[in-house]
Amino acid sequence: MLQVDIPGFGLITLEHLISDFTGTLSVGGRLLPGVDARLNQIAEFLQVQVLTADTFGAAREELRGVNCAIHILSGASHDQQKEKYIMDLGAENIVALGNGNNDRHMLKAAKVGIAVTEGEGCAVDAIMAANIQVNRAVDALDLLLHPKRLKATLRF
Predict the structure, then answer these.
(1) Residues with Cβ within 8 Å of residue 151, at least 6 apart in sequence
(2) DSSP-based three-state secondary structure for 20
(3) Is pLDDT above 90 for 139?
(4) Is the pLDDT assigned to residue 52 strictly greater than 90?
(5) What residues contact 99, with CB distance under 8 A and at least 6 apart?
(6) Residue 70: its pLDDT value, please?
């Protein structure tokens, strides 16, 4: 669990990190450098789950050795599936990372939504739905590893 009291934003109590994979934690289906170590550090205090359409079919292999649950979406309406997953789990205790249009509802529903631009870009609707936008996945993960950064970004 991670608790941070953020002036103007309120006390947040996070229990889960839910992240997209393709374009968020990876580029071209390859996990980005430094992401695995940071996810494993975060897994010591948050339940880490990757919720992805897995465009390149590489998520399971790339995340081998990372302490996380992997949920591969199927069918259509991935944006709605991700939002439902967040709501069913308890959105008020979730920080979510994403970059695509199919992440926009998840980012909006989560207590803290972080849009990650990285090498594949970020959909404008995902940015607009998020509380925070960062350029790199490691920057998003570092906000959780160094909560004063999160506080500094979200305070009013």
Answers:
(1) 4, 5, 6, 7
(2) coil
(3) yes
(4) yes
(5) 20, 23, 24, 115, 116, 117, 118, 120, 121, 122, 123, 126
(6) 98
14 falls within a domain = no
Cβ atoms of 111 and 92 within 8 Å: the answer is yes
Beta strand 94-98 with 16-19 is parallel
Distances (CA, A) of 127 to 9, 32, 47: 19, 21, 24
Does residue 66 sit within a domain?
Answer: yes
Separation of first and last alpha carbons in the chain: 23
CATH number at residue 64: 3.40.50.1000
Edge-to-edge strand ranges of the sheet holding 16-19: 69-72, 47-52, 16-19, 94-98, 112-116, 132-134
Q: What are the backbone dihedrals phi and psi of residue 109, each rounded to the nearest 5 degrees, phi first?
A: -75, -35
119 pLDDT band (50/70/90 cuts)?
A: confident
Query: Which structural domain range is residue 63 located in?
Result: 2-7+28-154
Tokens coding 65: 């050795």
Number of domains in the chain: 1
Pairing between strand 94-98 and 112-116?
parallel
- Write the single-letter amino acid at 72: I
